[in-house]
Amino acid sequence: MVGGSTSLTAPLLSHPFIAAQQPRVIVLYSHLLPLNARLDARIDQMVDDGLADEVYHLYELEQKLLVGPDSARGVWKSIGYSELRDWVAITHRGKGSAVKHPRADERWNEGVEEMKIATRRYAGLQLLWLWKELVPALQRMEVDFRMLKVTTGKKFGKEVISPAIEQCHDWVKGEVGKLSPMDEGAVAVQPKTLLAV
């Protein structure tokens, strides 16, 4: 199982059919401060890769399908669109064309910064959920799980991929894993400090 859906993971793992399969779980976690820098860099890359075009397309779809956005549902509430909607609303003139508005650059920069803040906040909430909900649920369900800390992209192979493959080999062979359920780094994470952005 791969994913990070906070609303589906624990119910899925506790489903009688899944529980009967004796699932093994590898949980990836990170400390929030280094994660924040990676999240910001990812958003900068999205901007470079054409985020503005995606926002324009969504805005055109919104105008075609809705009188106004239902910000409580679907893509209209996704991080990015809601933060950049004001920008596209003042620059959009239909069929992918744009007009220069005096506040366009300012609104774009504000929207991208709001997107970064919202993304960091969401990551903090996911980490909080992981520590307060998922880990205790896995322990209550007596699911065999291991936690691996993600530090940097450069170390991902050594710190995550290799240990995860080794753990999976051990599980397939029926051996008890060599990894502890929570390493020293996992214990050091304090859930109450996760929401600092």
UniProtKB/TrEMBL annotation:
One of its GO terms (molecular function) is ATP binding. Signal peptide: none annotated. One of its GO terms (cellular component) is mitochondrion. GO terms for biological process: tRNA modification. Keywords: ATP-binding, Nucleotide-binding, Transferase. This is Uncharacterized protein. Belongs to the IPP transferase family.
